[in-house]
Amino acid sequence: MFTILEKRDLADKICEYVFEAPLVAKKARPGQFVILRLDEEGERIPITLADTDPKTGRIKIVVQAIGTTTNRLHCFEKGGAIADIIGPLGTPTHLDGFKKAVCVGGGVGIACIHPIAKELKAMGVQVTSIIGSRCKDLVFFEDEMRAASHELIVTTDDGSYGRKGLVTGPLAELLQGADKADVVFSVGPVIMMREVAKATKPYEVKTYVSLNPIMVDGTGMCGACRVSVGGVTKFGCVDGPDFDGHQVDFDLLMKRLAMFKEMEQQSLGLWQKEGCKCHK
Fold first, then answer.
1. In this structure, are 81 and 173 located in the same domain?
2. Predicted model pTM
């Protein structure tokens, strides 16, 4: 069992959890993820790590309540315990060999881009981060991202905070001129990552996107997390989660992500009819 040491509300339906998981904290690298299971009968869900501390053995994740399992998790409070945390899984983000990087995070992906920006800055890379949310109330991790970057740009779709517009606006500005970044990392909604890749391609700037396809075991055994990259089938869990954004077939990815939407909605509806039982 893994006990929730801290729980913090970051925004509407977005919470930060701190667990003691010393083996995960010791081995984890930026870009990797864990798989959670709330109880013995629960589904397995992949969550990218938001931060780790090998000295204290603690890990931090940020979860948005969308489906049944994530809504159930949001019922848990500090002191509650879940059955499993498995990891670290996936291939760590490639961070070597860069001098100037742009880290783009959108929505809950802001938490996922944080360890990448943090590690790059510690390595001496010049880091500019762009984080975007729909509105001011959904902006989180601003202080953490500012500390992990040399420059931070905040955008909101409605202009209620920071710059009005999408993250691709300031990104395009940063890509212009001779002193542009030599790499862009992006984590967030699939549509956002697709547009980031489109924005960087004319400038021939290496772009990595972090994919979170439908996943079951997380070790390459089931094949559920198939993605097409450069016309070749890859597994998100072991070949990724990072891939060349200019090679990803985003249309196919979005179709696969939508395959079980109806069943996911039915599951959530049944849980809500049962009175949102969390079985903690």
1. no
2. 0.93
